[in-house]
Amino acid sequence: MKSVVTILLVLSLGIAGSAWAQGGSADNGKALVETKHCALCHKEGSTQGKPMDALVGTHDDAYLKGSLSDPKKTIGPTTKMPAYKLSDAEMADVIAYLRSVAKK
To answer: Into how many domains does the chain fold?
Structure first.
């Protein structure tokens, strides 16, 4: 019985880890972005933040994660963006969403 539980635990951890590696869910990320009201500052024509489709630019996932979790350190000390406490899965979902709406 212990071996079955161990195998299930290892499999579930592997699935959770692969969600991050695969970039998360853009649908879940969109829901989080809407819940956090990100579009208030990140909409077309806003003077407070770049529009959602322009946020990704050439930045890698580490920069995007830092921008969400510690914007003053990553973006700059004068940024007005708040820091968000998101799980790794939620962070991957938001980044997946941003990449899905990014201008190509």
So the answer is: 1
**Digit-coded pLDDT (tens) for 9-61:** 444 444 444 444 457 999 999 999 999 999 999 988 888 899 989 999 889 99
Q: State pLDDT tens for residues 58-84.
A: 899 999 999 999 999 999 999 999 999
Question: Which CATH number fits the domain that encloses residue 32?
Answer: 1.10.760.10
* pTM of the predicted model as reported, rounded to 2 decimal places: 0.75
Contacts 24+ apart (CB under 8 A), 85-90: 86/32, 88/20, 89/16, 89/19, 89/20, 89/24, 90/28, 90/29, 90/32
Residue 38 is classified by DSSP as G
